[in-house]
Specification:
There is one protein chain. The protein has 329 residues and is α/β, with parallel strands linked by helices. The protein is 39% helix and 21% strand. The protein folds into two domains: 74 residues, no CATH class; 193 residues, Zn-dependent exopeptidases (Aminopeptidase), CATH 3.40.630.40. The protein is built from seven helices and twelve strands. It has a six-stranded mixed beta sheet, sandwiched between helices. A four-stranded antiparallel beta sheet has the order 1-2-3-4, with no helix packed on it.
Length: 329
């Protein structure tokens, strides 16, 4: 017994030194990990790794606090420069977790993937393996900018509800389908309505110069002179304004390739029929050129009539966005 006590006392100091060393190393790791979590380095938080190792055998996806925290942080991600529209995490126990995010901001829509995952509370600090801007695929402008619906009118600067519908279409394309779209807010029909197409021609040319990769150029209008029953459908319990595609021709002005625009409209219309057979009222070829000579990808899209409401028009372009996304893909 005496020999055991002597041995214990002889090694007690060494054991205490070892314990203190391990504890100090652990404490240092906690401090450094906490500091790194708060930095702009962008990686998995130290506490998250530690918790997964201690309680979930290293399986991050099994830690509900981790997944829930991602959701909470992603909802909070919203600054002036970019916002996280959608995110997804996949986990393979034999590999690093992979983060997929889609960010929207002034520069357009950006997708990102990374295996250095993730602290999505600040998108700038997420370490990413790949950062690829999505092309701007859809350009939208309104030749008759003052057009509005039954429950609204143009403002003092001549911007009507049709512009809000244009932005709604662009938002749905970006947020729901990941398709980059831009809208011009330029007023074309004020003060001289008869100069509308001459003015919008300049806008269309400028947009095409800035976004030459665009796959579809939409001049968005609101129709008129029709019964509301002829321009309204009910889909999934909600009223939607129907759509009409207009194609210009060479009847009045030089437009030798107008049939290629017609092909674009027919292809888009066929997809609309698949999405909702009653959505598209038709594809109409008319005598005007409507600036469609500027690109073979131009269409004029009429949304409802002056008797439809703004909500009906917005729901109509939501259905249209689904078709546009399918057409572009």
């Amino acid at each position: 017994m005496t020999a055991f006590r002597s041995f214990y006392r002889r090694h007690d100091r060494h054991r205490m030194i070892l314990i203190l060393f391990v504890f100090g190393f652990f404490l240092l790791g906690v401090v450094l990990g906490y500091g790194y979590d708060r930095s702009d380095g962008g990686s998995l938080p130290f506490f998250t790794i530690l918790r997964s190792l201690l309680f979930y055998n290293g399986d991050l996806a099994a830690d509900p606090a981790y997944i829930n925290n991602l959701a909470k942080l992603s909802e909070e991600e919203n600054d002036d420069e970019q916002r996280l529209n959608a995110w997804e995490v996949t986990y393979d126990p034999d590999a690093a977790p992979v983060f997929y995010g889609e960010f929207g901001g002034d520069a357009g829509v950006v997708s990102a993937m990374g295996s250095a995952l993730t602290r999505v509370s600040k998108t700038k600090s997420v370490a990413l393996d790949e950062l690829t801007p999505k092309e701007t695929k859809v350009l939208i402008y309104c030749t008759h900018t003052a057009e509005s619906f039954a429950d609204g009118k143009a403002d003092s600067e001549g911007r009507g509800q049709i512009l809000g519908v244009a932005h709604h279409l662009a938002d749905v394309l970006g947020e729901e389908y990941g398709i980059g779209a831009v809208v011009s807010d330029t007023v074309h029909d004020s003060p001289d309505w008869y100069k509308s197409y001459a003015n919008s021609k300049k806008t269309c040319e400028a947009m095409l110069a800035q976004y030459p990769e665009a796959s579809l150029i939409i001049d968005l209008h609101r129709d008129s002179g029709l019964k509301k029953a002829d321009t309204t459908i009910t889909a999934e319990g909600k009223n939607a304004a129907t759509l009409l595609l207009i194609v210009g021709s060479n009847a009045r002005l030089d437009h030798p390739n107008w049939e290629k625009n017609w092909q674009t409209a027919r292809a888009l219309g066929a997809v609309m029929d698949e999405v909702e057979p009653r959505l598209l009222r038709g594809i109409r070829v008319q005598k005007g050129r409507y600036n469609q000579h500027l690109s073979e990808k131009c269409v004029l899209l009429e949304v409802g009539t002056e008797l439809n409401t703004l909500a009906e028009a917005e729901y109509g372009v939501e259905l249209g966005a689904k078709a546009i996304a399918a057409y572009l893909r």
